[in-house]
Amino acid sequence: MIELRSLNSSDINAIAKYANNFNVSQYLSSRMPYPYTREHAQWWVETGSKNNSTNFAIDLKGECIGVVGVRYGEHETQYSGEIGYWLAEHHWGKGIASEATSKMTDYVFAETEIVRIAALVYSPNTASMKVLEKCGYRLEAIRQKAGFKHGVFLDEHAFVKFRP
Ligand SMILES: CC(C)(COP(=O)(O)OP(=O)(O)OC[C@H]1O[C@@H](n2cnc3c(N)ncnc32)[C@H](O)[C@@H]1OP(=O)(O)O)[C@@H](O)C(=O)NCCC(=O)NCCS
Q1: Which residues contact ligand 1 via a Cβ below 6 A?
Q2: Per 3-state DSSP, what percentage of the chain is helix, strand, and coil (rounded to 5)?
Q3: What pLDDT digit, counting tens, does each position of 69-125 carry?
Q4: Cα of 30 from ligand 1 centre, angstroms
Q5: Could you report the per-residue pLDDT of 54-82, keeping only the tens digit for each?
Q6: What domains appear along the chain, each with residue ranges and CATH number?
Q7: Could you say which of 82, 103, 135, 149 has the lowest number of CB atoms within 10 Å?
Q8: CA geometry: angle at 120 spanning 30 and 136, to 5°?
Q9: Ligand 1 atom closest to Cα of residue 119
Q10: CA atoms within 13 A of residue 55's CA, in its CB half-sphere
Q11: Rounded CA gap, 152 and 155, in Å?
Q12: Buried b / exposed e across 84-112, counting CB within 10 Å, b at 16+?
C-alpha cells in the first residue's frame, strides 16, 4: 500500500501542511515545532533530516503523507538507533504507521550495523504503543515524568527491538 522512499524538495509542501496539526505534534518531541511552518519543513528536508539519521517519506500514490526515521547514536551508542514516525491525521487507523515502522525496522537491520532500535512514547499515545507492539518491539522501561509538555508531566515508555 505504502512505499518508503528518500525525501526530496517536492515533499516540503505536504510535510508543512500535514505536520502543522496539533494532534500530530501533541506527543512528538518539541524538536519538531508547532505551529509548523513551510520554513521548518524546508530546513528539515534539506538539512535536519540528513543529520546522523535515515529518514524516509511515507509515500502513498506519489504523495508524502508522513515520515519515518531512525537517528543513530554516536560513540559508545553507535550501535543503537531511535525510531520516530508521524502520519497525516486523515490517514490514521488504516495500518499505515505499522507498515511503515515494520519496513523501516527491517531496513535498518538489513542495511546498517545497528543492533538495537528504541522508540520513546509518551504515556497517552496508545496508538503508537500499539504500532510498536505490532512490529515486534517490547516495552523495556517506563521512565516516570521524564517528559514535560503543554504543562503536564508525561511518562516515557521505552520500547526496544533487537537485531534478530
Ligand atoms: C501514532 C500514529 C503514527 C499511528 O498511526 P496509524 O497509521 O493510525 O497506526 P496503525 O493504524 O498502524 O495502528 C494503530 C493501532 O493502534 C490502535 N489505536 C488507535 N488509536 C488508539 C487508541 N486511542 N487507543 C488504543 N489503540 C488505538 C488501532 O486500532 C491500531 O491497532 P489495530 O491494528 O490492532 O486495530 C499516528 O496516530 C500519528 O501520526 N500520531 C501523531 C504522531 C505520533 O504520535 N507519532 C509517534 C510518536 S512516539
Answers
A1: 24, 27-28, 85-87, 92-98, 121, 125-128, 130-131
A2: 35, 35, 30
A3: 999 999 999 999 999 999 999 999 999 999 999 999 999 999 999 999 999 999 999
A4: 19
A5: 999 999 999 999 999 999 999 999 999 99
A6: 3-162 (3.40.630.30)
A7: 149
A8: 145
A9: 48
A10: 21
A11: 10
A12: bbbbbeebeeeebbbbbbbbbbeebbeee
Residue written as cell 509548523?
36
Residue ranges with strand state E in the chain = 3-6, 53-60, 63-72, 80-87, 116-122, 138-149, 152-162
Cα 156 versus chain centre, distance: 15
DSSP state of 37: -
Residue nearest (by alpha carbon) to ligand 1 atom 16: 127
pTM (predicted TM-score): 0.97
Measured in Å, residue 76 CA sits from the centre of ligand 1 at 32
Q: By alpha-carbon position, which residue is closest to atom 5 of ligand 1? A: 97
Q: How many CB atoms lie within 10 A of CB 75?
A: 5
CA dist 52 → 43, 82, 145 (Å): 15, 11, 28
Ligand 1 centre to CA of 129 (Å) is 8
Q: Report how far residue 49's alpha carbon sits from residue 7's, in angstroms, rounded to the nearest whole number.
A: 9
